[in-house]
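dumping this here before i forget
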Amino acid sequence: MNTKRNCVIGDLLMRSGARPERSGSKECDGLAPRACRGAGTRRGARARILFATLALPLLMTVAGGPGRALGLSGEEILKRVDANITFSTISYDGSLAIHSQGTVRTKEMKVIAMGVTKALVEFTNSEDFGTKYLKIDRNLWIYFPAEQDTVRISGNMLKQGMMGSDVSYEDALDSDPLYRKYAVALTGTDTVDGRPCYVLTLTAIARDVQYDKRKIWVDEERFVPLRQEMFAQSGKLLKVFRTLEVRRIEGRYFPVKSEVVDELKADSRTDFAMKEVRFDVPVNPELFSLRNLGR
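structure:
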């Protein structure tokens, strides 16, 4: 990888919201911005999209806690949520509206996902036309059409916002069920946007988590997560996810509009919308390959 290539790809990554760090491989860790610091860098049967990771089946509930009085355990609540947001494949047209410092940038995309670990995103807005993201397991690559080049996102870059949004690459790649990483308590009920909700509190039991604590508000009737708050170990609020619109699609309630606020950024939020949502569509597995990415 030569210095000129580093400069060009580094500029594109900076535009997309990524801040590369250096390593010794061909991954995007070694791609410098224009200053040019030099070269160097069970297939799942189910899939969950970006904001559908708000709630998954639970590892445990508190015996004798609110769940008993309400007639449902925390695990039963989350299994119902899971039934709404779980599918073998999905395709949709999506958009990101990135609000920052009084400006709004809009990204349009076509998305198809297969299993819990595979997704392909192709951007269709003029600024990013033809740019593609490929996710396989916990790996993520970006293809830049003008340069006909593919780079892998890794290291500290995973904490940066996708396309400059409030959703990090780490958020997007996290497809592990929450019950494997968190102890869960059903801590009561509340109301969100006029709808009664169960309130679940999740505390990390694993070390490899982005957030040490989460609170999730689950719609009591539709079993859709309406709000989630993510906290650091210190208790500081880091991000807030809100579901803005829910539709009944192919017999299930499904969130089609969401909002993400990064509490560490001033005057910043990202709106995410989906349309033309289709579940369990036929998909060629060959789509999810590096060989196909540049076609």
